[in-house]
Amino acid sequence: MSDNTFAIPNWRKNIYLFLFGQFMSGITSMVVQYAIIWYLTKETGSATVLSFATLLGMLPMVLLSPFVGPFVDRTNKKFLLIVPDIIAAIFAIILSIVGIINKDFPLWLIFVSLLVRSIAQTFQMPTIQSIMPTMVPKEQITKMNGQLGMVQSANMIIAPALGAFLFSIVPIAYLILLDVVGAIVGVVIIMFVIIPENPVYDEKIHVLSDVKFGLDQLRGNRGLWYITLMGTAFTLLFMPAASMYPLMTMSYFHGTVAQAGIIEVVYSVGMLAGGAVIGFFGNWSDRMKPILNSIWVMGISFAISGVLPGNSNGFLWFVALNTIAGLATPFFNTLLMAMIQESYPPENLGRVLGILNSLMSISGPVGLVFAGPLADKFGVNSLFIIGGIGTLLCGLFVLLVPVTRNYDKELQKKIS
């Protein structure tokens, strides 16, 4: 399908308006997210509290994704993007009011707020993933996923720096209201974006049978099924370390909130650079090769990070290694998502993505249950060593199993 015959007139203008809306709503949400995590880190200094906060952020993705998928396939997409933003904004207002009145936040209310934000994302993420193939010509899917990744990386670059600055000068009870501003801007922009609806839009939803359908579709595709299982193992080993970035900087390297922000920024700068390569040059004949290379780079970077000395020189190396790991990250996430989007028709994507997102997230909470106690007992750096070695083992699995290693080659044959 060429640019000239694609169903949406001026599709580039339409998709860039959509990406701009994602940037505006995403950056305000992430500033607030970082502010909350830094508040918890500063007030408690506990790895267990941080891991529990991250656990709350992941549980909805694990438990609800399979049941969200059928709604994504058969519900108005704008509705699924707008309503969660509004609900998250309402809870931000409640949290802010309580903070202003009490001069502090009850820990339980922060956890409830994080849970609601995660539920909102559980609806929005598969919706965005499923509509991308309907908004751009097929030959542009990999590149546009790369540019979506660039937008998300840009958010991750700006949000920690902006969040650290605002956290230092604005009371957090007022800073939380930035989430409301972002929701308003995001909702207004989405109203002007053209989002095609699936032909099954009016079909009745049968949740359990639809969940089974998504699982059967995924399991019937052996290569993608094995990649999903590999991703599940990867999450189990990687997520505990990923949840400890603030504590790694502030406890192990004896850094500040600003330095914790620097780590988030450099990782995201790397992701932006990697996303730019995909977004503008993303036409690989075999996308499994750059995916495999990204796994090696992330694994080595994480493993080395765990054995660095806990001083200022070690922190500088930590900055460099996270920049490199960030550069590799989009090649795994973005190229895998492009392959998934090309593997199923758009009207089935929501149900398949619901199962896939749940399976690739399900081991994260399991790892996080042990992350806090392990970090408190053996040191937070040990989680980076475990994550790095585990990532390398996942790469070895992809390399040694032909149906995963050759998945994209076979997919391209089917498409052509």
TrEMBL record:
Residues 14-406 form the Major facilitator superfamily (MFS) profile domain. GO terms for cellular component: plasma membrane. It is found in: Cell membrane. The keyword Cell membrane applies. It is a multi-pass membrane protein. The keyword Transport applies. Pfam families: MFS_1. It comes from the Bacteria. The chain crosses the membrane at residues 15-40, 52-72, 79-101, 107-128, 148-167, 173-195, 224-245, 265-284, 291-309, 315-340, 352-371, 383-404. Signal peptide: none annotated. InterPro entries: MFS, MFS_dom, MFS_trans_sf. GO terms for molecular function: transmembrane transporter activity. Keywords: Cell membrane, Membrane, Transmembrane, Transmembrane helix, Transport. This is Major facilitator superfamily protein. It comes from Companilactobacillus nodensis DSM 19682 = JCM 14932 = NBRC 107160.
